Amino acid sequence: MEALEFTQGKLYFRQAAPEPKTSAGEVLLEVEAAGICSTDLEIMKGYMGFEGIPGHEFVGRVVKGPDELVGKKAVSEINCVCGKCKMCRGGLSTHCTNRQTIGIYNHNGAFAERISVPVENIHILPEDFSNDQAIFIEPLAAAFQICRQIDITGLEKAAVIGDGRLGLLVVQALGTKVVKENLLLLGKHQEKLDIIEKLGFQGFLPDELQVKPEWDIVVDCTGKSSGFETAVNMLRPRGTLILKSTFVPDKAIDLSPVVINEIQIIGSRCGPFEEAIRALEAGRVSTAGMITGRYKLKDGIEAFHAASRPEHVKVKIEIK
Question: How far apart are CA 29 and CA 117, in angstroms?
Fold first, then answer.
């Protein structure tokens, strides 16, 4: 099968990659589309030491598995878990101590014609659910995880830093809980802020917003030291900082304001697929205008180059 493979520090397009093996309890999916996210770009820099087929934001069709699932359109959660360890038994299976993570750790991903995943990972979609929306389900679920990790009354002042693909989803997820007048997105690209402003949210460039320690909740979607520092400076004493992106510090960070102001820092990762699917179906979250590049699998290397450029929001690889 055709696939993108990352090995020895370089991404290759393979015309004859090995077919995935399907074990008991797994289904085989024919991948229709997949999205490139920031984690994929970090993998290209050595993140997690991953080698193999990357890609974890995808939609496909079941071609092998239980009869009632064959032919169905589906997406998949990314954590392949044991179900037996302390974390799994305690209801924290996304932190399974024996987990594999699709396209990220010890499990081939979705930039390929086919992929095998545990049957319990898949979520069946309606036939009229567009692939353009479906590739956002995984990151949108991660965005909704924030609403599960902290208590939100709806009256908090909340800000999201970073106008990339994840930030645009996080501000919408928070917008289902927080009144829009108390919510904003801080970014560096007006064309990306335009996407969110068309949905009625407030978007600001750095020189348009005076940073004051008055926010109850700040979500850092930048993964950069500068974003972290801005978030800390925006939070009121005992405010809550959510780290939503894979954080790779590019310089030393002064953590003294965190101690002085007793700021609570929460890491946030995977989230509820069903809630993301319902939000997209109901129109509570929009992905309109967020796909800014479309490539075929054979052009996947070019797609990765495009995704790394700041003018792009989401680059989609169309496999079928």
Answer: 8
The H or E element containing residue 60 is: strand 57-64
Q: Which residues of 71-95 are buried (b: 16+ CB within 10 A; e: fewer)?
A: ebbbbbbbbbbeeebebbeeeebbb
Helical segments of the chain, H only: 38-43, 86-89, 131-134, 137-149, 165-174, 190-197, 225-234, 256-260, 273-282, 300-307
Q: Give the span between the Cα atoms of 231 and 35, in whole angstroms.
A: 28
Mind spelling out the 3-state secondary structure of 157-207?
CEEEECCCHHHHHHHHHHCCCCCHHHEEEECCCHHHHHHHHCCCCEEECHH
Q: Is the per-residue pLDDT at 247 higher than 90?
A: no
Residues 55 and 199: their CA atoms lie apart, in Å, by 29
> Mind listing the pLDDT tens digit for each residue in 293-305?
999 999 999 999 9
307-312, Cβ contacts within 8 angstroms, sequence gap of 24 or more: 307/36, 307/40, 307/41, 308/41, 310/188, 310/189, 311/189, 311/191
Q: Report pLDDT for 223.
A: 87
Helices (H) and strands (E) in the chain, counts: 10, 17
Residue 96: phi, psi to the nearest 5? Answer: -50, 130
Tell me which residue has tokens 């520090």.
9
Contacts of 26 (CB under 8 A, 6+ apart): 65, 116, 117, 118, 119
81, 99 contact by CB (below 8 A): yes
Residue 318: which pLDDT band, with cuts at 50, 70 and 90?
very high
Report yes or no on whether pTM surpasses 0.90.
Answer: yes
> Tell me, what DSSP letter sits at residue 121?
G
